[in-house]
Protein: Protoheme IX farnesyltransferase
Organism: Celeribacter marinus
Amino acid sequence: MTDATINFDDEREAGFGDYFSLLKPRVMSLVVFTALAGLFVAPGEIHPFVAFFSILCIAIGGGASGALNMWYDADIDRVMKRTAKRPIPAGKVEAGEALAIGLTLSGFSVVMLGLASNWVAAGLLAFTIFFYAVVYTMWLKRSTPQNIVIGGAAGAFPPMIGWAAVTGDITLASTLMFMLTFMWTPPHFWALALFMNSDYDKAKVPMLTVTHGKRVTRAHILVYTFALVLTAFALFLTPLAGWSYLVVAVVMNGAFLKGAWDIYRRDEVQAEADKYKVERYVFKLSLAYLFLHFTALMVDKVLRDFGIGGPF
């Protein structure tokens, strides 16, 4: 009786929410925010309508990547507890539909961004979609424990795309915004993997926690956090960052580094005893980390516009 009920629910007609879920709205929100930050702090002028449409195209491109990812990873998603209710494994959306939506939105977003702003930004968006859907999803995710490290580049491009939409180029400042997100990604996901490891193990995804164990993963989190801290302060040395950014960088990097050190010092007996309390805290802290750094860059841009500059 229970199985019959589940089948009945799964076979209902897909609604707007099911199709929207294909676009990974939570991931898209990060893409939109960091792209907006890159566009906002970039030197030069851009018409408000062009700015809005550029961010919309970047959001659509990010959503297209999500749809392509869900299409290809449907077999993995069915096994993992946290993804089993996604539209395809839940039987709400056909895999072919997801593929068609992903390809259509990919082409639309790239072409329209090129026409609205410039082809440098459009080219970066096209490469980002390709990198996430093909390089990460189809290759890295299933083949190497460094999947998150290298694949993290896909999520790091949006601020660079936003910058390019205004300037039409790639600079040291935009590259450092890319690097901030790139270095943030491994400790962010590995902290999650420490307390969600069984999901990756069941799906046979070679996450570092699965292939090398949690002790090695803890050490990697600490190493990459050091690299992240160095990147964060390197960005302060550019004209983009001022005193607001410095305050955020000192506080957040100090807290994140302490969290990474606490994770490194713990063993699995301690972690399981308190239900991975520290690891969950660091994961939540990582969500605020990126938001506050990019927000501080935008605040400093406003202050500069009012003649209140930073040290550089």
